[in-house]
Write a structure and sequence with these properties.
Layout lengths: L6 E6 L4 H13 L3 E8 L15 E6 L5 H7 L5 E4 L12 H22 L3 E5 L14 E4 L12 H15 L12 E7 L1 E3 L4 H12 L3 E3 L10 E3 H17 L1 H4 L2 E5 L8 H9 L5 E3 L8 H18 L11 H7 L3 E3 L3 H6 L7 H14 L11
Parallel strand pairs: 1-2, 1-4, 2-3, 4-5, 5-7, 6-13, 7-11, 8-10, 9-12
């Protein structure tokens, strides 16, 4: 790697799911790094214990929506890995808040780069920005040259597409000190691994249902997934690549995938849940036809609308998540390998083993809820 000794990295959202893995990878495999600043609204001092004789991990509590906090935190920083984001596909958070964090917060990150002479910024986007949410076309074996047919209706995906555009347009912008800012965007497939909130929620649902889940989406639909450790590793390599060949990486986006098999959401999750004692009803086909499930979801959304003056609730299954689980989205690309030498750090077998071990370590286990 090309980092000179004494590099200072700042990870926005560093206490989150991806951020924690990223900090750990930076400590273990980053080269020439003297300090990693973990910038987040919440504080987890346990991350400071990752510090070594060579690398100091420092927690900086702050909010990317506060420009002044971000300016102070990025003073003396060489690289920003911008992972902080509100992820909401369940319509639980007002659109104004999502825009404030995901879009305005990203503007503040760029402004901090310019004001403090930060020369590299890697942004964590999502595969969702390539989706056409009006037609929900199957997208199979996509790569970065696949024609853009995207259309966004969900506040979350609209905000991620807007933030991605800001980051890419900031590439080449002059920063304090006369240097140029180099930026790139990573679009991970669905991320899983230790600490994954969605996977943990699915597991807890199975516990409540005495170890049984019901298939909803069609098994023939395949969705790409990627292990969190490999996503973190790709960020480290991309940051280094921006230093070595900014003219090649700058202004580019990259899909982030690995050796994880392309399967339906349910079938993929069962790869991790089955060793934990979870059973699946509807092995070959959904228990209920798609039309019936869609009508039930629509009724629930109408009920939400009627009850919103009195109470609020947001089920995990809505029209967006049902459509996403019913449309193929897979990628086949070597652009990250060609541009900055990315190869998965963890094999599928290792990724699965680590995830299963984490699930099995959770306090509540399926077998404790079964009746003899």
């Amino acid at each position: 790697m090309a980092d000179r000794p004494g590099q200072v990295y700042l990870v926005t959202g560093g206490c989150g799911f991806l951020g924690r893995h990223l900090v750990k990878i930076l400590v273990e495999r980053g080269e020439g790094i003297s300090e990693i600043r973990v910038f987040d609204t919440k504080v987890d001092r346990d991350l400071e214990s990752l510090s070594t004789d060579l690398v100091t991990v420092k927690i900086v509590q702050g909010d990317i929506t506060d420009r002044h906090q971000l300016l102070r935190a990025t003073d003396g920083v060489d690289v920003i890995l911008h992972t902080a984001s509100i992820v909401d596909v369940f319509k639980r958070i007002p659109e104004a808040i999502i825009q404030k964090v995901n879009v305005q917060g990203t503007k503040h990150v760029i402004e901090a780069c310019v004001a403090n002479g930060v020369q590299r910024c890697v942004y964590t986007s999502t595969m969702e920005v390539a989706s056409n949410e009006k037609q929900w076309m199957h997208m199979e074996r996509c790569n970065e040259d696949t024609p853009d047919m995207s259309s966004h209706t969900l506040p979350y995906t609209k905000s991620k597409a807007a933030a991605e555009k800001l980051i890419l347009e900031a590439n080449g912008r002059q920063v304090s000190g006369g240097k140029r800012l180099a930026t790139c965007v990573l679009r991970p497939m669905g991320i899983y691994g230790e600490g994954c909130v969605l996977l943990r929620g699915t597991f807890e649902n199975a516990v409540r249902l005495r170890g049984c889940l019901v298939r909803l989406g069609p098994p023939a639909v395949h969705i790409g997934r990627v292990y969190v450790g490999n996503v973190a590793w790709m960020h480290v390599l991309a940051a280094s690549g921006l230093a070595e060949t900014p003219g090649l990486l700058g202004g580019q986006f990259y899909y982030c995938s690995d050796e994880s098999p392309d399967k339906s959401f349910m079938d993929f999750n069962m790869e991790m849940l089955r060793p934990c004692g979870v059973r699946l009803m509807g092995q070959e086909r959904p228990v209920l036809p798609y039309f019936v499930v869609y009508m039930l979801v629509l009724l629930v959304e109408l009920l939400q609308l009627v009850l919103c003056p009195f109470c609020s609730f947001s089920p995990s299954l809505n029209r967006y998540t049902l459509a996403r689980a019913s449309a193929t989205f897979t990628v086949r690309t070597d652009k990250a390998t060609r541009h900055f030498g990315y190869r998965p750090l963890y094999s599928w077998e290792q990724s699965k083993e680590r995830t299963v071990r984490w699930l099995q370590s959770l306090p509540q286990q399926v077998h404790s809820h079964r009746r003899d």
